[in-house]
User: Fold this.
Amino acid sequence: MIRLVAGLFLLIGGVAQAQIPPEIEARLPPPYFRVYVVAVCAAAEEVSEDCMAEGLRHGAYALSEMYLRAYRGQLVWNSLRLRFPYGWAQASQTRFLQDLEKRAIALATDQIGRDIAARMLPEQAAVFASRIERWRTDALMEAATGDNWSHGWSEYRHDFAPVHVTRQLTRAELRS
Assistant:
């Protein structure tokens, strides 16, 4: 799970060296599973436009990486979680999520286009270009509705599950 936390200053990483009880270890994700917490804003009172722009950049990159993994036929095992500072208006959260998703789609579209151009003949690339455009159009429509996110409005938390990524790309016939 990739987590973007705007409003809390946390950084979790590394490998624990302590002995983990077997009953807890059995519930842990596999060793290749990583948790990323990106600290953006140190405190809710200090939420600035620069802070949120940085969060938007990190979140869009993380989501675009999910799209690229799915496109390449790799397992998309992570999800993206965003947490907003308490007190943020629902409309502001919704707008941020839509902007993030739009940026992620643009990043992924550019990279997929470059990948296709590099490995295919121009005639084949033209077929895939129309598929990319269809996916981009559909994904942007879904981004506008906010349906790809599960919302925890009372907790100011939103999750983007990998199933949405693979469903979109499979529907557009873009998975490798």
Remarks:
- The longest helix spans residues 90-119.
